[in-house]
Design a protein that fits this description.
About 40% of the residues lie in helices and about 15% in strands. It contains 12 helices and 13 strands. The strands form 3 sheets. The protein has a 7-stranded mixed β-sheet with strand order 1-9-8-7-4-2-3, sandwiched between helices. β5 and β6 form a beta hairpin. The longest helix is centred in the C-terminal third of the chain and has 21 residues. It is globular, with a radius of gyration of 21 Å.
Length: about 375
């Protein structure tokens, strides 16, 4: 994926007093101070103290999403904002691009919301390409307007990263009224996503991936034109209603009771992210991905994701050596580490190594040393 070897980043952040353990695509390890923030005394969710915390976090999230508009915060998983985007922005038809398990989920969510869904299948382990989007959207527009497209930026199931900037440009050129909805659950804060500059209307994510927070919070950057569209749509529900969320956001709160303890952790972690530097964080993730890809090839494995579109946060490795992933993980567990098996039909045919959140270069060195020791033992 990379044309040159990137410079190794310094190990300048500590995750925990114990060794890094989780190399799975979520939940990821959480720093001790971030975990500890949850134990602070409870406060009222309509108090000045909470509203100040909420306002600080939302402002920092806007910077991280590269948007001047807004970021909604919910006590939920990322899937919640998949449903929210459909309920708020699709009164009629949506084109769903499916190239993995989580883009499949977004399609299923749209079907479950009783929308008119045009499904476009893209081979797994390959990216959604701009030319595919153009062809599918042209075909769909023959039957009438298309409210939105859905696309997953980084397919956690396959380790493929699709070029959403180029995809959005195609959509804006061909059908300016069509909204661009992006799932960035497993890439956000590990990869730069310029929401406003790229013309994205919804970018959603959750807390337990590259943000390196406990599970339980979901976030969505929502454009002005998306909010304006929501105001014209009926059946938005209540909990997921963008218009209701906007009214609460102006008061630095949420319509329903927020996850106060998780918000405290969010405040601490966002400070840590900006202390590291967002560009440095993106560069670290890129290096970790390159390091993992090089290790896989050097040790007799193949890379499952399409060349040129490989994720910066999770690498899917073809199990060409036909090792037992279960036994490998049992061995790694004795060293306080864990990787992930292949997803769905790829179980045992592949394995996934996540390198997101607070994973450092030294963590990868330790993981690969243990994996090489297991491989050597299994061959004797």
């Amino acid at each position: 994926m990379h044309q040159q070897v990137l410079e190794r980043p310094a190990d300048n952040m500590t995750v925990s007093s114990r060794h890094q353990r989780l190399f799975i695509p979520g939940p990821t390890d959480v720093a001790d101070e971030v975990l500890a923030a949850q134990t602070a005394p409870m406060i009222g969710h309509r108090s000045d103290e909470f509203e100040a915390l909420f306002a600080k976090c939302e402002e920092q999230l806007r910077s991280l999403f590269y948007t001047a508009a807004r970021v909604y915060i919910l006590a939920a998983s990322g899937t919640a904002f998949q449903e929210a985007a459909i309920r708020n922005l699709v009164p009629g038809r949506v084109v769903s691009f499916v190239n993995g398990a989580f883009s499949q989920r977004w399609h299923d969510v749209a079907v479950g919301c009783d929308k008119q869904v045009v499904r476009v299948d893209v081979p797994w382990n390959t990216a959604v390409k701009p030319q595919q989007v153009e062809a599918a959207l042209r075909d769909a527009l023959v039957a009438g307007p298309v409210d939105a497209i859905t696309v997953v930026h980084n397919e956690t199931s396959t380790g493929v990263m699709s070029p959403v900037q180029e995809i959005a440009a195609v959509v804006r050129s061909l059908s300016p009224q069509t909204l661009v909805l992006v799932d960035a659950v497993s890439s956000f804060s590990g990869v730069k996503i310029e929401t406003d500059a790229w013309g994205l209307d919804v970018v959603l994510t959750s807390s337990q991936k590259a943000l390196a927070l406990p599970p339980g919070l979901a976030f969505a950057a929502v454009s002005d034109r998306a909010l304006a569209k929501a105001e014209t749509v009926s059946g938005r529900g209540w909990y997921f209603d963008f218009v209701r969320l906007e009214k609460a956001l102006k008061k630095s709160t949420t319509p329903a009771t927020p996850a106060i303890s998780l918000m405290r952790s969010l405040g601490v972690q966002l400070d840590r992210i900006f202390a590291e530097g967002v560009e440095e964080r993106f560069a670290r993730h890129a290096w970790l991905a390159e390091r993992t890809q090089r290790w896989a090839v050097a040790n007799g494995f193949d890379l499952m994701a399409e060349d040129g579109y490989r994720s910066h946060t999770v690498t899917t490795i073809t199990n060409t050596r036909q090792i037992s992933v279960k036994r490998l993980n049992a061995y790694l567990a004795r060293h306080d580490m864990e990787i992930s098996n292949g997803y769905g039909d790829y179980k045992d045919k592949a394995f996934r190594i996540a390198h997101m959140g607070e994973v450092q270069a030294g963590d990868m060195d330790r993981l690969f040393a243990a994996m090489e020791a297991y491989l050597a033992e299994s061959e004797t």
